[in-house]
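Input record (one chain):
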Amino acid sequence: LPYTGPGPTTLAIALDKPLTRSVLRAKGVPIPRGFVMRDANDAVPPLGVGKRWIVKPAHEDASHGIDVGSVVADEPALRERVAWLVATYAQPALVEEFVDGREFNVGLLGSGANARVLPLAEIDYSGFPKGRPRLITYAAKWVEDSDEYQGSMPVPVRDLHPALDKALRETALAAYAELGLAGYGRVDLRVCHERGPLVLDVNPNPDLSPGAGFAKAAARAEIPYEELVERIVRDAVDRRRPAAAALAR
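The corresponding structure, as predicted from the sequence alone:
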């Protein structure tokens, strides 16, 4: 039966963030530096002077387990956060360098050579609570009356330098292709001052409701919501036809 989006292997990889990182790194797609801790007493590599790190659940999505306390600046705070996360979520912790640069959401539509990048959105942190690390926490994503939600709105990208625009699009397309996404998806990136755009997350099934960011990106590409849904469904049917023909033989 045809179905929208990628297959189960891609969905499983995308929910395993360390495995996603391994695939992207092996394919040359730039990602933040990082490591996995299964226990708060695990060995920790040198953290670097003045660097901050973010501690995430290894197998969650939708910003579960992420709040302003997820960003740490030294080893004691790192171990304390890992201990809390492992006890709370019963899974390893993914520790990544905290890249405090501009953040972009890149929606993609289509499959294979037909995949196209939708107009980019940038997270506007200008109203984010002062003194807190700028990141999309659980509250910023789901608690609409919170300061973090109100202070981290995605906005259409304007006046982006052509070189950065090109780098964001190429990096997002590479992540989309190398993880086997199909039909539709979203890639979240932050810009590192030294390394350029880095992939933070790859979402193989972003929210498709009319008011969500993906539909808004499609609208900026002059794709009405009904047409967006139709394109995703037609993509699923077209991808399934060769397999159905082979079975028929």
